Structure prediction request, 631 residues.
Amino acid sequence: MSWLTNFVRPKVQVSSDRSGETPDNLWLKCNGCGAMSFHRELESNHQICKDCDYHLRLSAVARLNLLLDKGYKRLKLPAVVVDPLKFRDRKKYTERLKDAQANSADTDALLVGYGTIHNVNAVVAVFDFDFMAGSMGVAVGEGLLHAAAKAVETGSALIVIPASGGARMQEGILSLMQMPRSTVAVAMVREAKLPYIVVLTDPTTGGVSASFAMLGDITLAEPGATVGFAGARVIEETIREKLPEGFQKAEYLLQHGIVDAVVHRHELKDRLGEMISLLMIPDRVSNRGDRGAIAQNQSSQSSLPGQSHAATP
Amino acid sequence: MRTYLEFEKPIAQLEAKIEELRHLGSEGKINIADEVAKLEAKAERMRHSTFSRLTAWQKVQVARHPERPHGLDYIQGLMTEFNELAGDRNFAEDRALIGGIARFRGRSVVILAQEKGHDMKSRVEHNFGMAKPEGYRKAIRLMRLADRFNLPIITLVDTSGAYPGIEAEARGQAEAIARSIETCLEVGVPIISVVIGEGGSGGAIAIATGNSVLMLEHAVYSVISPEGCASILWRSADQAQIAAEALKLTAKDLFSLGIIDQIIEEPSGGSHRSPTEAITRVGDAIEASLNRLANLSRDEIKQNRRQKYIEIGKKGLV
Prediction:
């Protein structure tokens, strides 16, 4: 036997991608300018390249931490039917789900946090793109309905931040049905006269873009985010033309009147805080003082939904 | 010339033979009525056994059959006093989604129907049944009209999907579909949706968020086309047959999943063999659904529809 046939492959365990387990020597390449950045540096800059301002994907948990005031809570989302179609492509859907769950602290692609943004009540629902491309199935639809119910219950603004390739094909028609279901969630918040704000992040396409994501009272987008109904490849194959520069990017959407504003990630919390405060606390004249005090005064004076229940720091 | 699908070939051969014999018979030389009757019975048995065992992929082909009755055929067959209403008032008229007011068996209704066209010229005119944002915005406008005048809405679904194109994206295809779904959920009048051919994803649900969702026996309704699904998940469009099976897109599957409320049985050998019969059956089913919803208040109609979608995914699943 030669040394060749005797050679034993080293059993390398590939470490999973769990946040917090990232090795210390990790450098990431910016998709915008190609510059290498040390991961800790990116993390402290909320995944924005400091050379070119390119917005890399921010994890769902980091997003909640970025937007909600300290002390927010996570909403427990209900268990739903698993693999309703017994779907199997090259791999079983149940296995794909297990793999995704093994790499995530959560059971599906939606995370919901509730608390306040600059002391105004808010429920924030964030898509986790790392979980099966943020695709929307029954669990995500149910999560959005629960987030909406929580917003109504606590008199909060609902802020949804999609990052999703669209419907989850492995749930077939049931994933398509999440389009009307998520629209019911929006209607619940609207009927309670609470603000519903969408922050489109990279990417938001397919059935997600063609339902709740385009129904915001206000629709914001992160710089450079790709947002559209049909994927670029499908469009190119249909029309057999090259797509224009910047097609389906946030700035293109702004130009075409589809979003209200493109907001830099560093400004996102302040802008959202201002917007929900403008919409939910219309009268500040009779309540002079700092923001927290206003929120508290209002809770004792008015029956308007949306006043903060949070303690003033 | 008739179009025959691959699996229909034996039936087609027999049908052609019967036709030939009839032709001979009409010349009066020989009495072959008995023979024709025998062959007719055989053809009927073949149609029945073939069409009662169609695979998911075969159903996809039947649903896309060019001679299957389309939206405009149903309007013509079921509606009187049809007054077509065009345009979204913002940008254009979209002939992929036809709309108007009409009388359906005595009732004034708003009808919305996707139309694919039946020959090259009309297919281009109707953009192969793929609506653009202006099509969905016209649908929204007409649903609001129905709501104001308290008219039930009938929607006929037959599209491979909403149009994927640069202009459609620039004018907000996603937003148009989203608003159309929202409008379906908001109106205080009954919406009866019938999937008559192909229920293609977002382009279909945009007008199919109804109180009653009916589906023809050989129609299909899916989140993505089998070809699209195969090319993404199997990385090869050749696997479309397998994808069609996996997607559970047949009327029977969707009924057991609680997505649709009723399966409308098709005439023997599919709707393309007896369009008039198929159209009448669809009409009867729509009428029965309208009657069931007739005594509900506007608010009950809205709540009924909303509840139906909240419940989906909770029932019929084992």
Q: What stands out?
A: Chain B has a mean pLDDT of 94. Residues 70 and 121 of chain B are 15 Å apart (CA to CA). Residues 60-317 of chain B form a domain with the 2-enoyl-CoA Hydratase; Chain A, domain 1 fold (CATH 3.90.226.10). The radius of gyration of chain B is 21 Å.
